[in-house]
Amino acid sequence: MTSPLENLENHLEMFIENVRQIRIIVSDFQPQGQNVLNQKIQSLVTGLQEIDKMKNQIDVNVPLEVFDYIDQGRNPQLYTKDCIDKALTKNEEVKGKIDSYRKFKSNLMKELSDTFPVEISKYKAIRGDE
After folding, report:
1. pLDDT tens track for 29-52
2. Residue 12 neighbours by CB under 8 Å, 6+ apart
3. Nearest to 68 by CA among 52, 59, 79, 57
4. Dihedral angle computed from the Cα positions of residues 89, 92, 97 and 101, in that order, rounded to the nearest 10 degrees
5. For the residues of 10-77, what is the DSSP string, one character each?
6. 3-class secondary structure for 65-101?
7. Which residues lie below 8 Å from residue 66, measured CB to CB, with a gap of 6+?
8. Average pLDDT per block of 10 residues along the chain, 130 residues long
9. How far apart are CA 47 and CA 14, in angstroms?
10. Positive or negative, the Cα torsion across 68, 70, 73, 76?
11. Pick from 91, 66, 94: which is nearest to 81 by CA?
12. Contacts by residues 2-10 (CB-CB < 8 Å, ≥ 24 positions apart)
C-alpha cells in the first residue's frame, strides 16, 4: 500500500503528463483532434479533483519562499541549499562578533586590572573568575 505522499506524487506526475500532452495537442491543433483534447481536459479536471481530495490526508508545510523560487523560474530544490548557505554565512558573522567581544572583554579586564587592581580582584572574587 502506498503512502498518501507517494499517492499525491503519482497523481501530480500524471497531472503533469496530462498537461504536457495537452500542450502538444494544442500547439499543433487539428479540428479532428477536438475529441481527444476534450478528453484530456476532462482528465485534467478529474486529476485536479483527486489532488484536492488528498489535501486533508497530507500535512506538509511549505515555506512561502519556495513558491517565490518557482515563480522566478528557479529550482525549488535549491531553496534548501540557499537556506543552508545563508545560515553558514550568518553563523560565521555571529562567530566573528563573539570572538570580537571576547577579545574586547579580555582587553577591558586587563586595562581595568592595571588601573583598578583592588576593585577588579574583588570583582573576580565575587564572580569566581580567579
Report:
1. 888 888 988 999 999 999 999 989
2. 51
3. 79
4. 170
5. HHHHHHHHHHHHHHHHHHT--GGGHHHHHHHHHHHHHHHHHHHHHTTT------HHHHHHHHTT--TT
6. HHHHHHHCCCCCCHHHHHHHHHHHHHHHHHHHHHHHH
7. 76, 79
8. 84 92 88 88 92 85 87 88 93 96 95 93 84
9. 8
10. positive
11. 66
12. 4/54, 4/57, 4/58, 5/58, 5/60, 7/54, 7/57, 8/51, 8/54, 8/57, 8/58
C-alpha cell at 27: 500547439
Question: What is the maximum span of the chain, computed from C-alpha positions, in angstroms?
Answer: 100
